[in-house]
Write a structure and sequence with these properties.
One of its GO terms (biological process) is carbohydrate catabolic process. Keywords: Magnesium, Metal-binding. By secondary structure, this protein is of the alpha/beta class. The protein folds into two domains: 113 residues, Enolase-like, domain 1 (2-Layer Sandwich), CATH 3.30.390; 236 residues, Enolase-like C-terminal domain (TIM Barrel, Alpha-Beta Barrel), CATH 3.20.20. The strands form two sheets. Strands 4, 5, 6, 7, 8, 9, 10, 11 and 12 form a nine-stranded mixed sheet that branches. It has a three-stranded antiparallel sheet with strand order 1-2-3, sandwiched between helices. Helix 8 packs parallel to helix 9 and helix 10 packs parallel to helix 11. It binds magnesium ion.
């Protein structure tokens, strides 16, 4: 089964109201992504999507002469070839996912079954995105609770960290230990201050120790392995990171240095599903948790769902699910899904159709191509 073509479509969909996320300097009125379509010599199509449009286009430009006419399985088995896409300063995860979608369709299996997964449903955790006031976050958590969701991730990025900490205090006051709280500081890269140093990160961690939180995510710059080691040694809170890293070798360094408790590779941000499975298994043999980042367009979230369904529950108990605002899940994540995915009692069912398991409304997507 040969690869005969790769096409990309840049898509821009309007949001029902402007939204500003904690890591961004301005509100968004639209959500932009790129749809990737790979076609084999029989005309079967595989799809994927990513927010990293420019970087993925760079990778496709670099790889295209090598890909055309190549056997899909040969490509997927060749991690050196995939890494070559990164060497072109690109992102290859979405290309890899589109090829897996194509291969799983040809095999007539849902993607997770190709990886011998057997989890039928996955527990989600609610990922918030905004720096809302305590009252608004509490109201959201009540809705999550009604949906059966027990873990919520809130954002720390206010000018004064005491204002961030106050949100945790208010949540605990309202719900006691009924809700499990994770905190994401988004300090691995910077568009918006504050930019924490190691002492800021330690202060936040020490204060959070009082509130029994699940984990503190990206408290430091992404490459500061020594900083992560130092922080982890000085706090008993679980430290999570890695959503921006792209390959097995970088995670090997983090894990060998004992820098993390929770590893967070994302199939779209990294070199893809195969790479994430290797990273997850490396986390497992080192006694760590693996919780993939999953804040990309719908097919990216779906690919991470299949990844989680391929892994043991005690290694990967939850899938990150963007639920702030609540309409994000239907309007944006499932924008072009022909069959909707529901959250029931805190779980989503893994789609059982072939490939990523959801038929896309391609005509709807094409209406928003820029
Ligand atoms: Mg994060």
């Amino acid at each position: 089964m040969k690869i005969s073509d790769i096409k990309t479509y840049r898509v821009k969909i309007p949001l029902r109201e402007p939204i500003q996320f904690s890591w961004e300097p301005f509100p968004n009125t639209h959500f932009e992504f790129m749809l990737i379509e790979v076609v084999n010599n029989k005309g079967t199509k595989g799809y994927s999507a990513t927010q990293f449009a420019a970087q993925t286009e760079v990778a496709i430009r670099g790889l295209k002469p090598l890909l055309k006419g190549l056997d899909v399985e040969d490509f997927l088995a060749n991690d050196r070839l995939l890494e070559l896409g990164s060497w072109f300063f690109g992102r290859v995860g979405a290309i890899e996912v589109a090829l897996w979608d194509l291969l799983a369709k040809e095999e007539n299996l849902p993607l997770y079954k190709l990886f011998r997964g057997n989890r039928k449903r996955i527990r989600v955790y609610a990922s918030t995105g905004r720096l809302a006031k305590a009252e608004e976050i509490i109201n959201l958590i009540k809705k999550y609770y009604d949906m059966g969701i027990e873990v919520v991730k809130i954002r720390f990025h206010r000018t004064n960290v005491n204002d961030d900490l106050n949100i945790v205090k208010e949540i605990r006051k309202e719900f006691g230990e009924q809700v499990k709280i994770a905190v994401d500081a988004n300090q691995a890269w910077g568009l918006v201050p504050p930019f924490w140093n190691r002492y800021d990160a330690l202060k936040a961690a020490k204060e959070l120790e009082r509130y029994n939180i699940e984990w503190l995510e990206e408290p430091l710059f992404k490459d500061d392995i020594e900083g992560y080691v130092w922080l982890k040694r000085n706090t008993n809170i679980k430290i999570a990171a890695g959503e921006l890293e792209h390959n097995f070798w970088i995670f090997k360094k983090f894990i060998e240095e004992n820098a993390l408790d929770i590893v967070q590779a994302d199939v779209i941000y990294s070199n893809g599903i195969s790479e994430c499975i290797k990273i997850a298994l490396m986390a497992q043999v080192n006694g760590l948790l693996f919780l993939p980042h999953a804040w990309d367009p719908g097919l990216g979230w779906l690919a991470n769902l299949h990844l989680v369904a391929s892994l043991p529950e005690n290694l990967t108990p939850y899938l990150e699910t963007p639920l702030d605002p609540l309409w994000w899940f239907n309007d944006v994540i499932q924008f072009a899904f022909k069959e909707g995915i529901e959250i029931e009692n805190g779980y989503v069912k893994v789609p059982e159709k072939e490939g990523l398991g959801i038929e896309l409304d391609i005509e709807k997507i094409k209406k928003f191509v820029t």
